Amino acid sequence: MESLSLVHDVLDAQLVDRREEKIGRADSLLLELRDGAPPRVTTILIGGAVRAERIGPWMTWLHRAIRRLMRREQDGVSRIPFSAMRRVGDTVQLDVDGEQLESGHLERWLAKHAVCRIPGASGERK
Amino acid sequence: MKKWAEVALGVVTSIGGFLEVGSIATATQGGAEFGFQLTWVLLLGVVSLAFLMEMTGRLAAVSRRTYVDLLREQFGVRFFMLPLAGVLVVSVLVLSAEIGGVSVALQMATGLGFRWWAIPVVVVGWFLLWRGTFGLVEQGTAMLGLVAITFAVGAVKMHPHWAQLGASLVPSAPTHDRARYWYLAVSILGASISPYLYLFYSAGAIEDEWTLDHIGVNRVTAGLGNLFGGVLVIAALVVAALVFAPRHIQVDRYEQIALVLASPLGRAGFVLFLATLCITCFGTTLEIVLAVAYLLAQGFGWSWSENLKPDKDARFSVTYSVVLLLAAVPVVLGLDPLFLTNISMVLTAASLPVTVLPLISLMNDEHTLRTHVNGWLSNTALIVISILSVVLLLAAFPLQMLGGG
What we know:
The complex is a heterodimer.
Chain A (H helix, E strand, L loop, with lengths): L5 H5 L3 E3 L5 E4 L2 E7 L2 E10 L1 H8 L1 H14 L7 E4 L3 E4 L3 E3 L10 H9 L13
Parallel strand pairs in A: 1-7
Antiparallel strand pairs in A: 1-2, 3-4, 4-5, 6-7
Chain B lengths: L1 H17 L2 H14 L4 H25 L3 H44 L3 H18 L2 H12 L4 H8 L4 H6 L10 H15 L2 H13 L7 H29 L10 H4 L4 H39 L13 H19 L4 H26 L3 H4 L6 H28 L2
Helix pairs in contact in B: 1-6, 1-11, 2-9, 2-11, 2-15, 3-9, 3-10, 3-11, 3-17, 4-5, 4-10, 4-13, 4-14, 4-15, 5-13, 5-14, 6-13, 7-11, 7-13, 9-15, 9-17, 10-13, 13-14, 15-17
């Protein structure tokens, strides 16, 4: 049986969606505690809020302050079931659509409201 | 055949990339105040940079991943904040200095004050990044940067005392103004060993789709490119030593540095100096701002490539746009470009440990590099550079206070 080191191979790894588009990094992992059964890994988290928690209380505070300033309700965190994992290698592939992820809202917002308003931003090739 | 073209291109890129506002300023200041004596520091900087570039290039060629990518994954997000913050702050400052360099060159060419040039320079740079590809940025600036060879021509025409120059490749302590001497030594090292250089180089290896076949290309590029680049900076020091030192002129304005080539080459020397300053600083501006965008994008797992249309990597392209504008601010406000250059070179030197020390672990990780882990030579060099980087961190701020004025 092949084993997988959660910290070495999954935590902080580059994540890609089913079309191989980069969708962030594995910022945190969640375990589910069950009665009468061993705990199991259930969720991969992507997003600034969970990243901030790992860095320290000051970063969490800063992150909350910025969110309040931007008047955003959502925390911008994507919670992806561990079962969506398809491949672990240089990148970790998840069977999700990156376009739908909450953690990608800034990318989509910037593309729509900033980048695409400037000529030459879109098209097939540079 | 294609391989040789790649080698040639890589070498040319390094030559053009080596000379920029920091190395021009610190090498001429060193030459003016201490003659040839600081040449050994330049040599130390060149060799250190060559090793660091070879390592990060090899890492990218073997693992098909960038240095920043591995830094975040292997060391975790908590540690990653250190190099992120360090490189970010230092790079934006150096970027300001480069924009200042282009602007000062344009001021001397046109008479219009440098503050007015910062925004036009940034807009042209931004336009090239927005529309151009990685190849355009890399090759365009490399070819134009060859104008820097002027320094070598100038140095040879001044007929330096070769034996004396050779002797100054051996480290020696100063007989006067010790604090100033060591301050300049730190600045020269900061100007030679800049983190953005190897971050850009490592990302470039991925942009150019390097594979195991490129290990040889990488070695030659890092070695020869930096050697030639280093020769040009030494040439700048030599000219300054022969022009300024005998007249006891201390360099404290770019207008003075601009006259350095007028002695051996006349009016053409002045024009060529302006062209060199303008072109090399502009090329470096593009490299630094891309390095910053690569750092953030790779560290946080965003989509990134200078070859993608901006809407395919919105955060990446917004990052370089915003950082360019931000870096123009000090120049627009009229902060003295030479002061900006000197302070950012010292800070660069102080920031080195956070990007150099992690290489000790990464370059010996068989999981990532398989049989291409560091040999004894690279490891010895890396240990020496690591110790040097810590010494620079400890010495930078005291020396800035004692010798910076």
